[in-house]
Amino acid sequence: MSNRIVVDPVTRIEGHLRIEAEIQDGKITDAYSSGTMVRGIERILQGRDPRDAWAFVGRVCGVCTTVHSLASCRSVEDALDIHIPPNAELVRNIMFCSQYMHDHVVHFYHLHAMDWVDVVNALQADPKKTSEIAQSISNWPNSSPGYFSDLQKRVTKFVESGQLGIFTNGYWGHPAYKLPPEINLIGLAHYLEALEWQKEIVKVHAIFGGKNPHPNYLVGGMACSINLDDTGAINAERLAHVGKLLADGKRFIEQVYIPDLLAIAPYYLDWGAIGGGLGNYLVYGDLPTNGYRDPASFKFPAGAILNKDLSTVHEVNMREDSEIQEFISRSWYEYAEGNDTGLHPWKGETNIKYTGPKPPYDFLDVEQKYSYLKTPRWKGNAMEVGPLARMLVGYASGREDFKEVVDSTLAKLGVPATALFSTLGRTAARGLESLLIAGWAQEFYESLLTNIRNGDTRMADTSKFNPERWESFAQGVGHMEAPRGALAHWCVIRDQKLENYQLVVPSTWNASPRDPEGKMSAYESSLIDTPVHDPEQPLEIIRTIHSFDPCLACAVHLYDEDGKQVSRARIL
Amino acid sequence: MSPNETYPRLLILGIGNLLMGDEGVGVHLAQRLALRELPERVDVLDGGTGGFHLTSYFEDYPCLIMIDATLDGRPPGSIRRLEPRFSSDFPRAMSTHDIGLRDLVEGLHILGRLPKIHLFVVSVAELQNMYIGLSPEVETVMPELERQVLELAERLTVGS
Question: Which of A55, A393, B16, B114 is least surrounded, with the fewest CB atoms within 10 Å of its CB?
Answer without folding.
Answer: A55
